[in-house]
Amino acid sequence: MPRLLGLDELQERNRRAAEKELADMRADTISYLRMVAQHHGNDGIRSLLVEAIPAWARQRVPPRSERVA
């Protein structure tokens, strides 16, 4: 029977999984940007940024008083 993990072990496992997922997403993003730059040059990157920045700016950032520590 597998041993049960403690809370600290679960939290550490989740933290490592989240870090790996973020690193994978970053690597995928860099690969995609390189591919766009190779095939479409600066205009392709510019087009991506024109689309991405307004979407990012629309995201609501809660006031500091509403953030969970």
Model description:
- By secondary structure, the chain is mainly α.
- It has one domain.
- Helices cover 75% and strands 0% of the residues.
- The model has no long low-confidence stretch (mean pLDDT 87).
Search tags:
mainly alpha, flat, 1 helix, 69 residues
Task: Write the topology of this structure.
Elements: H1 7-58
Question: Would you kindly provide a brief summary of this structure?
Answer:
The chain is built from one helix and no strands. By secondary structure, the protein is mainly α.
Shape: flat
Parts with pLDDT < 50 across at least 5 consecutive residues: none
Strand proportion: under 5%
Largest sheet features = none
Return the domain count.
1
Which structural category do the helix and sheet elements fall into? mainly alpha
Q: What is the CA-based Rg, rounded?
A: 19 Å
Give the integer mean of the pLDDT values.
87
Helical proportion, percent range: over 70%
